[in-house]
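ok so i was messing around last nite and threw this chain in just to see what happens. nothing serious, just curious
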Amino acid sequence: GGGRGELLSALERGARRAGAPPSLVLWGRFDERGDDEKALTAAIAMRSLGIVRGVTVVASQARPAMGARLARGQCNALFDDDGSVTVGAGATAAEAVAQEEGMARCEYLAGDEGVDPRGAQDRVFATLEA
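result:
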């Protein structure tokens, strides 16, 4: 507690004891709210510490392709080229319009070329089998 990194240190020690660390699949909205971006930042930190082997991101919300571009841009901004980002399922048209307006202000939005072209199911199973 107290922000001193004790939890991450304990997770790191546990991963070393377990041998090969597990892969992590992060399913999220990745929109202007920012809570899934915080989770992705933590996942990337855990990968860099060796707590997890790899991070696969599935963006799933009103505009999943836009959310995937946001997640890929975040990985790029955090110098994480190893993470895989793919597109999941979408939602309603009204939610899509609101999200696109919010995303237009994002300075690190990646292009479509950084998003894994495989569907979410194929990408998740590839991660779990690795």
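not much to say yet. Strands lie at 24-28, 55-59, 84-87.
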